[in-house]
Amino acid sequence: MATVVEENSLTPISTNTKPMKRRRKKSMVWDYFTIGAADGDSIKAFCKQCKKSFAYKTGPKLSGTSHLKRHVDMGICPVGRLSQENNQAAVCTPNSDSNGSLDAIDQPRKRRKNATALAKVSFDQERCSHEMAKMIIQHDYPLHMVEQSGFQGFARALNPQYNLVNMNTLQNHIVRIYSREKQNLLNILRGIQGRVSLGLDLWTSDQATSYVIITGHFVDFQWKLQRRILSVITLLNDSEFALKDAINACLKDWCLESKLFALTLNQPNSSEKVRGSLRSLLSVQRSGELCDQNSGILEGQLITGSCYARVLSSLVHEALEAMKFIVEKVRRSVKFVMFSKGLPEKFSEVKEQLQVPSTRTLILDEKTSWNTTYEMLVAASELKEVFSCVDISGADTPTVDEWRQVQTLCSYLKLMHDGMSILTIGSYPTSNMFFLEAWKILLELVNASMSHDPFISSLATPLKDKFERYWNDCYLILAVAVYMDPRCKRQFVEMGLSRLYGENAGAWIKFVERAVHDLYHEYILQQPPPPITEAFGEDDHEYAIKSELHTDPEYELIDVDFDFCVSDLKSDLDLYLERPALPPVQDFDVLGWWRENEKDYPTLSIMASDILSIPLTTTSPDSVFSTAEGQMDSLRSRLRPTTVEALICAKDWLKYSSCDFASDADQTTTVKSES
Hints:
By secondary structure, this protein is α+β, with helices and mostly antiparallel strands. Among the domains are: 1-114, no CATH class; 174-266 and 271-304 and 618-664, no CATH class; 308-429, no CATH class. Helices cover 50% and strands 9% of the residues. The strands form 3 sheets. It has a 5-stranded mixed beta sheet, sandwiched between helices. Strands 1-2-3-4 form a 4-stranded antiparallel beta sheet, with no helix packed on it. Helix 13 (370-382) crosses helix 15 and helix 20 (505-526) crosses helix 25. The termini are far apart.
């Protein structure tokens, strides 16, 4: 039997060789193993807990320590596994006896730098509180969750060392995250060379309080379109100046007083007084001085009263309301088939027998998301033959004529659904992408309103009237944005307006072209005057100015020739419009093109970045199909306005930031208790 010998008292195996200074073993396994001589010239390692032996050295050959580590780390040792379970029980029950633990059997010496990663993890109260605040922000959890007994028990089970925080402490961490991310966004906004356009989304609450969520749209220094929520402001009254005051507060807070370019509202019925109060905000910065309100950009025409997504949703709502009885018939029929015992299998069997070409299956819609209603109607109409062959006497299925009307309805819902695709596919769209979609919708509705089919014309006419009001309100912005698309330019606008207005298109086309040149002229005036060259001293410069006033006829002739040469030079706008349009390419990066050609069009490129970043919708991408109005959560509406703003803004900003705890820990912002 092998004799177990402590490592420090092990004698040399051979007395014929000169004793060598032994190197201290560094592996962590020697906290749990000792070595001893075995039969012959072999040495074995013995587990201190279960006394099991393992090969360590046979003659000159070493077996290494990997198999010893597995014995410890994987819990193969039965005594060690029992000790680990006892330790875990001791953590959950602080007053429990620690007898039988690993330390009681054989206290290991202090672990060295190559100990397992788990041993290096230390508890951090601030880090835990930071991550909890981040979780509350990102997932819209209620703040009072931290004071509920269920959550507190869960947190204690994770780690009894964690000191539970109350709502006030939690708000401090939330505001700390908000302040840190706000500073990051401020740094980004300071680095942009263009302007910022704002989208305004109005929300209500069950507390009869109104909010405006202000979102900024801009092109950053890398020529990427950015969209960030800037402010969430409580509207204290419903006067025509309430929105203006809110926007002014936002601009001042973000140091953007002279950088506002365009506004997009979500108020299709906003009064002219409201718009008039907002036009003065669209002032022009010329040569470092802010011009008065009469010098607004395009005289304040860069204000859109309606959100593109909300307009399309309102058209869908109106169409569904016009056919609500038939739509409800379809909904009841689908529900009956889906939830009747044995009927789904029978329905699928009949579908195969009839060889219906549709690959769709029945779905039940969610009434607050109209895209699901569209999908339900399309699937049901494609499977209408199956409905007629399956015994569903318990449901009032649509008649043949009603199925025809459902198909007509689906064709117009598809028009709106396709129009929404630019908001649901990929990143947020630049403004040049909206002209084509809006133009197709209006053209289709105009043609349908003149249909000889009374059902089609009666369905399409009110939709056409409503969408035409939206088009007249924002077509100028849509068309100017298309000018900035090198694939389209003026030719695409001329073609589109000619299709819509026929012989009357000339006036519409000229209006757009004049607006493009007027806007470009504003950007020319914004450029600072050329610097005075150092070749002239102050006296020389004064002499040069006086020389320009010389009345000698010879000088007048020189001035005339010079003015003629300057007027003959073409602007970068003229050069851009004269060059042929690029071939139509899908997935075209229009901002990337302007970045690459910025040197060729120094002034026009800045103008293009501002135009292409105009928001045509105020709705977030995840709610474009929603039929519900913006509603503040009942719990949040009871919080202070500053806390509400911190929660909503920080959630948006954290999508673009890792919010590293280490860089956030030195923030000291605090918040008062909730009233």
